[in-house]
Amino acid sequence: MKTIDQLLKEIKRVHFIGIGGISMSGLAEILLERGFTVSGSDWKESALTKHLEAQGALVNYGNPQKAENITDDIDLVVYTAAVHEDNPEYMETMRRQIPAMTRAQLLGQMMRNYEIPIAISGTHGKTTTTSMVSEVLLKADTDPTLSVGGILKTIGGNIRIGHSGYFVTEACEYTNSFLSFFPKIGIILNVEEDHMDFFKDIDDIRLSFHRFAGLIPDDGALIINNTIEEIDTITKELTCQVVTYGPDNGSDYWPEEITYNEKGCASFILCTGDGKRRKFSLGVPGEHNVYNAMAVIALSDLLALAPEAVSRGLSSFTGTDRRFEYKGTVNEITLIDDYAHHPTEITATLQAAKSYPHNSLWCVFQPHTFTRTKAFMKEFAQALSAADHIILTEIYPARETDNLGISSQTLQKEIEALGKTCYYFPTFEEIENFILKSCTPGDLLITMGAGDVVNIGENLLQK
């Protein structure tokens, strides 16, 4: 059997099942730029698929995806964890015995073509930190190739194809995807319980991150958050350099004198064990972004980037789509949209919102997947209680079906048990009408979740 590396040297046409995904579309664009023929399928047209079509990709639309999209002139099929064995295109790929690989395997093989592949992992903060790294590398004129899990305004999308040895990508632990990667430098932002439909428990997750760290070669480096519980289980037996960052001088990097401006964006003194003190100012709100920035600064030091480029990159970065993104105002109500879909992320976002100008803080939360909602029911209730007013949508099922006997009304009861008033509406239209009737000028409204809750804010702005 041919190795993946041999296969990639021989193929001409690649087909992506689910080509419109943020990561899949990026990989497709890289292959198009390299002269491959690219086709794919997705349920519906989007800005990402239209962009790929403009680059020369053939995209088939329809739900369900169709077996006839798989033809004999396809040399390789790429699919994601969301594609199951009963997918018609996947089944036809197997029937025709066309070589196939996961999105993560293809991304890993691409990393091998670069001198310094950088993989950014963690339960939370991957897209924001990857974007921060991207801004810094661009300001340092390194001409990097970037694969971001969100839309970065500076590059006008989620992908940038450079011509240097730098390759930057997010590294997701779900289904152990990042174990197919080949990083020279790895970052671990945090390790917490999530994706419990795949992992057995927190120890299983720590093992996955330990195996990821073990992929880094002897002459590479791991940058890791020193506040991670049982960090030694991740860093033990590593042969690469390990660099830590955290809240105090027990780490290689730590912050002092953190202050916030009127929009909740931090300035701080970055301290290191050699006695150096450097001041940085961020363009994104929240203390959690101080920690993300420290990881970026540690990386920048490893790469010996110009200090002024690092400072300018961090201060000029104002966020990616759906990460505390300002959407506009309606009836003098400020609309923010955020991707937070885990209790820790919700806490960080609502804490950042406390420093943002507002009268009352409203949060419209869309729970993401039934398994996650059930696993963190009490944690979700506690985190959301930081808002003054809470509105719940229906659970966004993503890849799941409802067989757990829970609903958003279950979460509503948990929140109300904490003494908070919580509203639930089954449709976006009902939520939008309630907001227009209930919010007052000067209020701050955050739409929150990893599904399509962003549409509520978009609809309000149109009204």
Largest sheet: 7 strands, mixed
DSSP strand count: 21
- Which parts are unreliable, with pLDDT below 50 for 5 consecutive residues or more? none
Chain-averaged pLDDT = 93
How far apart are the first and last residues' alpha carbons, in Å?
59 Å
Continuous helix count: 16
> Beta fraction of the residues?
15-25%
Query: What is the overall shape?
Result: globular
Structural class: alpha/beta
Radius of gyration: 22 Å
Question: How are strands sequenced across the largest beta sheet?
Answer: 8-7-9-6-10-11-12
Helix content estimate: 25-40%
Describe this structure as you would to a colleague.
This protein is α/β, with parallel strands linked by helices and 463 residues long. Helix content is 33%, strand content 25%. It is globular and about 60 Å long. The protein starts with a helix and ends with a helix.
Short descriptors:
single chain; 463 residues; alpha/beta; seven-stranded mixed β-sheet; six-stranded mixed β-sheet; 16 helices; 21 strands; 25% strand; globular
Question: How do the helices and strands line up, and which of them pair or pack?
Answer:
Blueprint (H helix, E strand, L loop, with lengths): L3 H7 L2 E5 L4 H12 L3 E6 L4 H8 L3 E4 L14 E4 L8 H9 L3 E3 H9 L4 E6 L4 H14 L5 E8 L4 E4 L5 E6 L13 E4 L13 H12 L7 E5 L6 H4 L5 E5 L7 E8 L4 E8 L4 E9 L2 H15 L4 H10 L8 E6 L2 E6 L4 H12 L6 E5 L4 H6 L1 H8 L4 E4 L15 H9 L5 E3 L3 H11 L5 E5 L5 H9 L1
Parallel strand pairs: 1-2, 1-4, 2-3, 4-5, 6-9, 6-10, 7-9, 10-11, 11-12, 17-21, 18-19, 18-21, 19-20
Antiparallel strand pairs: 7-8, 13-14, 14-15, 16-17
Helix pairs in contact: 6-9, 6-10, 11-13, 13-14, 15-16
